[in-house]
Design a protein that fits this description.
67% helix, mainly alpha
Amino acid sequence: MSREPNAQLIAVMDEAKVSNKGLAKRMKDEGAERGIDLRTTHIAVGRWRDGFGIRPEAAALMADVLSAKLRRRITPGDLGFFDHTKSTAPEPVGYASTVPDVLSMLDGLTHEHADTSVSDQLIVMDADLNSVVLSWMITRPDGIQADGPAHRRVGMRDVRAIREAAGLFMQLDFKYGGGHGHKALRHYFREDVLPLLDASYSEKVGTALFGAAAEISQLLAWTAYDVGNHRLAHRYLTSTLRLSQVIDDRMFGARILGNLSHQANYLGNHTQAIQMARAAVEGAKGRATPRAMSNYSAMEARALSNAGDGIAAARAMKEAERHFERADTGEDPAWLGYFDEAELMGELCHCFRDLKMRRDAVAQAQRAVDSTDPKYARTLGFCRMVLAQSQLLNGELEAAVTTASLAVDGGDSLQSNRFQRYVTDFQNEVSVHVANPTVVAFNEKVHDALTRLDEDDE
C-alpha cells in the first residue's frame, strides 16, 4: 500500500498557483453549477497529492477547473490520475461465442495480477454492456457435452472439493478483504478447476461442475474488485456471466448482473448500475428463489438511491423486503447463504444514507451493525461507516467519529480498497471540523492503521 506523491498533480497546481483549499473550493463551486454535490475538501486534495485514488467524476471536474485557470486543456492523465493512452479508453466487453472461447478467456485472466497498479477508472460503453446483457437474455444454453473422450473422469467428489474451496476462500474474503486470497485463488482456479471442465463427466456432474467453477470465477471478480482492480474484476464478471449460460443457470447469471450493478454504482456510473440491476430482476423472474430476488431488488434500490431517485428507490426497497419475507419458502443454493436479514439491512441502510433520510438511515444502519455476525468483518466495517455517515447527517459529530473509530479498529487489517474509501470519504465529510480534538484523534488513528497495513505489505 506504499504510495508515491502525485508529482504531476503537484506540478500543475504549482503552475496554476492554486492551494489545496483553493482547488477544493473551485471544484465544489463548479460541481454545484453542474448539480453535483462533490463535497471536496482541502484534505481530499492533499490525499490526492499524496498518491491516493480519485473518482473519475472528481478527476474530470478537477481537470476542467485547472484548464480554466491555466487557459489550456488539462486532462485527468495530465494530473497523474489515469494513463490517458490506456486507462481512459473504453474497456472492450466480450461475450464469448463458444465454451472453449470463454474457458480460454478465463485462463488468460488468471495470469493477471489483481494488485497490479491500475487506475480506479473504468469506462465501459453502454452499447457493449447492453450487448452482453441481450446475449445473456436470448442466447440458448450450450448444454453439457457429456462423456467426452478425455482421459480424466470427473465425479461429484471433485465438485464438492471445489465448492468447499469456494467456501473457504469466501470466508477469507469476508474476514480479511479481497487482497488476502486472490493470488492463491487464481492459481487454484487455473491449475485445479479449469482443467476439469475439459475432462469427461456425466451430464449431472458436468452441470454441477460448471456451477462450481462459476462460483470460483465470481469470487475472483469480487476479490479483484475489492483491491481496486476494476478492469480485471469487470472482465471476470462478464466471463462468469457467459459461464453461467452454459448450464442455463439464470439465478446465478442474475447474481453476476447484480455484481456488475454493484461495481458500476461504486464507480458512479448510475445509469449502467440501474440497467444492470433491472436486467437481473427481469432476467431471473420465475427462475430464482425469493431470497435471490430480494438481493437483486436491493441492488436496484442502491443504484436508484445513489442516482437520487427517491420514489423509484422506495419501490425497489419495498420489493426487496417483500421478497425477503418469503425467503424461507425457497430452496436456496449454498452460495446465497450469506444473504441474511442483516445483509439486507446493510444494503438498505446505504439507500437511506444516499437519499439523506437521516433518521431512517441511522435506525437502519444501527440495526445492520447490531445484527451482522462479526465473522463478516468487512461487511460489519461497511455498516459501521454508513452508520457514522448517517449520524453525521443528523449532526451527531461525536457519535459519528466514535462509530467510525470502531470501524477502523475492527477493519485496519482488511486489505480492502473499498473499506479504505469508506474511511476516506468520512474523513472528507468531517474535515470541516478538522480542529476538533475527536476528529484529530480519529485522523491519527486512520494514519496509524494505514501505516500498519504498509508494514504488513513489506
